[in-house]
Amino acid sequence: MPTILRLAASAAMLAALAGPSLAADYDPPIFIEQAPEYVPVEVGSGWYLRGDVTYKIDDPLYEFTFLGEETRNNRFGGSIGMGYHFNDILRGDVSVGLLAGDRFSATSGLERYEAKYDAWYGMANAYLDLGTVSGFTPYIGAGAGLLHTRQSFDYSVSNTTIFGFDDNQTNFAYALNAGINYQVADNVSLDFGYQYVDSPRAEYLNSDTLTVERGIDFHQVKVGLRYDLW
């Protein structure tokens, strides 16, 4: 018995000495936080596409009669663009389009006269939507961009050009917009508006005085379709 007691006492002493060492080597459990759930970003949210048909309501830039022939004036134009809703009030878009065009041709014997005029524009616009009532949203806006014009003239005899020129210009332009938008579906709406486009430094030939003058502007009404991508 004494021997057994001595062995038990020795074992108890070793356990007491080993206890602090084991405690020092003990590592606390590691808790790993669960990663937040991934929510994909809606790339299309707020973006919209638009297309418009325009009609020029003021006088054509070129309108004259020569050799019994009159200018042929195209008052129709159009544009396409892409925009973004910043909030319920402010939105903006970028658009490019054709404004108008004039044509003239006349023949006298072997002589032939031909003239052309076209105008295109690219514009960045900002709009204020003034509240919606029964699906109708009136708005006002303004824009800045570039006006590109091309004017050409050709005088020929027996199909041989005697004199001609082809003038291309690109100048600063600005726009003023107003209209009303009507929502016909969740993401489709009709746009009825007015647009004034002015390029103060664009040059043209005054057909009455045969002098070069500056300043080209357009008054036009627009009917368009807007498609929201959300």
What does this structure look like?
The protein has 230 residues and is mainly beta. The protein has one domain (46-228): Porin. It contains one helix and eleven strands. The chain has one helix at 2-24; strands at 47-56, 65-66, 69-70, 72-74, 76-85, 90-108, 111-129, 136-157, 160-183, 188-206, 211-228. The strands form two sheets. Strands 1-5-6-7-8-9-10-11 form an eight-stranded antiparallel β-barrel. Strands 2-3 form a two-stranded antiparallel sheet. Strand 10 (188-206) and strand 11 form a beta hairpin.
Brief descriptors of the model:
elongated, two-stranded antiparallel sheet, 230 residues, mainly beta, 1 helix, Porin, 64% strand, 10% helix
